[in-house]
TrEMBL record:
SMART domains: NDK (SM00562). Homotetramer. It catalyses: a 2'-deoxyribonucleoside 5'-diphosphate + ATP = a 2'-deoxyribonucleoside 5'-triphosphate + ADP; a ribonucleoside 5'-diphosphate + ATP = a ribonucleoside 5'-triphosphate + ADP. Belongs to the NDK family. GO terms for molecular function: ATP binding; metal ion binding; nucleoside diphosphate kinase activity. ATP binds at K11, F59, R87, T93, R104, N114. PANTHER family: NUCLEOSIDE DIPHOSPHATE KINASE, NUCLEOSIDE DIPHOSPHATE KINASE DDB_G0292928-RELATED. The gene is ndk. The active site is at H117 (pros-phosphohistidine intermediate). Signal peptide: none annotated. It comes from Sphingobacterium paucimobilis HER1398. This is Nucleoside diphosphate kinase.
């Protein structure tokens, strides 16, 4: 059964381009409730650990460099069918393929600087949420 939580990061490009407010509005308008949130800059070590599943991929080094290039907003979100519905709200990894109206279609410039992260499974949503937030930081 699908759990009702997912994890997201508003990535450094979207933060630098002034889209935090607009993206949070889209997330809330999409029916998601914010359970936890923080504004932080990742170290290479932290970003490398978060993306360890992609370690062998050719884009890993660039991904870690990009994700540590400026502050991000990390959050745990709640909604029925959260993981799948959030992936629909953000659109395809490559923004040129993301459907009109999706967050990546509106705010992302390239497959590397693609504005936002969304967990890809219930299991990863739980792992990623716990990576960033303790139980005392969830509401
Ligand atoms: P995310 O994890 O950020 O929500 O993105 P995703 O599931 O749609 O894509 P994923 O396969 O998990 O890849 C993580 C991030 O790596 C970059 N990427 N570059 N050049 C490439 O072929 C390529 N593929 C992936 C993207 O920035 C992607 O968000
Ligand atoms: Mg992914």
């Amino acid at each position: 059964m699908a759990t009702n939580r997912t994890f997201t990061m508003i990535k450094p490009d979207a933060v630098a381009n002034g889209h935090i407010g607009a993206i949070l509005n889209d997330i809330i308008a999409g029916g998601f409730k914010i359970i936890a949130m923080k504004y932080i800059q990742l170290s290479k070590e932290t970003a490398g650990a978060f993306y360890a599943v992609h370690k062998e991929r050719p884009f890993y080094g660039e991904l870690v460099d990009f994700m540590t290039s400026g502050p991000i907003v990390a959050a745990i979100l709640e909604k029925d069918n959260a993981v799948e519905d959030f992936r629909t709200l953000i659109g395809a990894t490559d923004p040129s393929k993301a459907e009109a109206g999706t967050i990546r279609n509106k705010y992302a410039k390239s497959i590397d600087a693609n504005a936002i992260h969304g967990s890809d499974s219930d299991e990863n949503a739980a792992i990623e949420g716990s990576f960033f937030f303790s139980h005392f930081e969830r509401f």
